[in-house]
Amino acid sequence: MNKMEQPIPDVTDEDVQRIAIRDVGEVQPARVLAILREYGKQAWNRPPSPRVHLAILRLANGDLNQLSEQTKTAIQDFRDVLSYAEYPRYTKEIGFTEVSGETERAIIDDDWRQYREWLEKQ
Length: 122
Description:
single chain, mainly alpha, 2 domains
């Protein structure tokens, strides 16, 4: 069975700044952005990306300690933060397991809905 494609968020640095302010407050966005910029400095990592930064922010849920921890996770393997931030149900419930196409589609759609709601929340 071929795994279904999951939507990929089309996000920007402006989204990262907006979410940083929304989740942590206007007092500390510079600190948040400085922590996020630690990802991508390593030779083995991709260049910094808004998608990875937003995944870190989502998993941190406004907690600066978690922000640092999730950034460290991204430095080790950015796919870990992407999968748990964008597709948490899929990652936990399916992963590499074979399931029906209907089940897989329902979980992908639910994860995508939750991500969009989080991203668009004011």
